[in-house]
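Amino Acid Chain and Its Fold in Token Form
===========================================
Structure side: the spatial fold of the chain, written down as a series of whole-number tokens.
Position: the record begins directly beneath this header, with no further notes in between.
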Amino acid sequence: MAERNEIAALRGAMEQADITWYLVPTSDFHGSEYVDGFFKVRRWLTGFTGSAGTALVGPGGAWLWTDGRYFVQAEAQLEGSGVTLMKIREPGVPTIEEFLAEHLKEGDVLGFDGRVVSCREAEKLKAVTDEAGAVMAVAQDLAEEVWKDRPALSRGAARLMPEELAGESRAHKLARLREEMKKAGVQVHLIPTLDDIAWLFNVRGRDVHCNPVVLSYAAVEEEHAYLFVQDGVFGAAEQAALEADGVQLRPYDSFYEYISALPETAGVWYDPARANAAMVMRLKAGMNVAAQPGPVTAWKAAKNEVEMDGIRRAHEKDGVAMTKFLCWFDRNVGKIPMTEISVSDHLESLRRAQEGCLDLSFDTISAYGPNAAMPHYSATPEHDAVIEPKGFYLVDSGAQFAEGTTDITRTVACGPLTEEEKLHYTLVLQGHIRLAMARFPQGVRGENLDVLARGPLWEHGLTYNHGTGHGVGHVLNVHEGPQRISWQITPGLESAPLTVGMLTSDEPGYYEAGSHGIRTENLMLCVADRETEYGPFLKFETVTLCPIDLRPVVPGILKADEVAWLNEYHERVRRVIGPQLEPDERAWLEEAARPLEA
């Protein structure tokens, strides 16, 4: 099978650099999940457009590792490319490290751009190359040599997040961080992660599609704080406000020189899961190093009262847009021409009409029928299914509002459904409700709760290959750690305990390849429940406000308390969203969100 021209070009560069194997993750210099065009090397190389995956090019082949969200999509996009799909966590599929351990030969050279690989991952790869008698080369960005029309680095205008929306000043956040540095006995805290930097300095930007972050690095010292950014991204007023709080701007590319210039006596703190290999390589031997998670990620995840209030307001606005959309969709499906892209465009226009809507929070997943069996499907002009008055339509979408970030999925009946489709829909809804109803002691992690959402499907021998819940930022990334809800645990990347203020998705699903896909998603704030003799208990407050389609629900499956939860939820949707709709839309909502009988 012939390889893609891009892979052949990379092989030429590898040969020139004496590199035997070359690793291409989906990342940027900051460990981001979603990346700007400059960093989409893996996509350029393989043709696979999913947001997660790692490519490896070596003697006699090329391979791509991706997770269960993308199996169907990757199989289709890699066909005829010469790239072998490696399905992560599937039986018999080795990890990248296991694959390299089996195939590396003595004297082989494993290369990658050290700026896009975390130091923790680099340590694992170093152990593999050492065992094989191979060599690791970490300073090679071979794409720079062979990707002729590579996009330039994004350089969007940055803005400051007002304290009345952030709930805490940057000066106070920096003071808190310096207190933690003092306790840890360090003088410098290095932060490469874009959302952590945005939160800590109360800045927002436009450098990553749908994620309001600024390409930047940060270094916080005992007396000074530095933001390493591209020239001109902050205006004069913003720069003056930052300087008033002791924040100095430095050139983006000078961050690595800054690290190299740190004295051997400096105590340095960095998170090995987030720092890239090129950063850590520049630290001097013998430095007092605290290689452990920093506090900013946890602070950012536990929203303060101002942030939580903003999140509730954002979801009310989003609920109005989504309810208007579902009403329009329901009344017009089968009556006017509809395609996946045309209905997605209509939903976007309704969202952007809401006051304070800044952008989408990710590219909308608009999927009809079999396309919905791909959890992260993306419609294109070449593959834009016509929506017919039968089967299911799934829409997973969200927005960035001035007050908060939203993410919601609804699966709706377009017309007649099979009994199997109805059963799958009801089981997914039942799992969604069970998780939303959870009450649990402080200290519980997401993996402890995942069975609540998966249980109804598991009882029927069914499951889904993605996590049940991810953290969500505050006017930041739609995927945010450290919390998540998934029974699958990656060593070294365990989720954090759920704490008050964390915003997390509840999104079980089911996917029948070639037939249908179902997912129901709301966002939930973790809030205090009660104190008992066993200590504090927590619960979830569902903040998403939008009707859930009742037509596919199979009578008798949902238990009385689950029906009660659903009815209470829909009563709140009618009460909060209803008054903001047109009279005909309000009438539709009254029927769509009607009470169910237990």
User: Anything to note?
Assistant: The first helix runs from residue 5 to 16. Residues 159-291 form a domain with the Creatine Amidinohydrolase; Chain A, domain 1 fold (CATH 3.40.350.10).
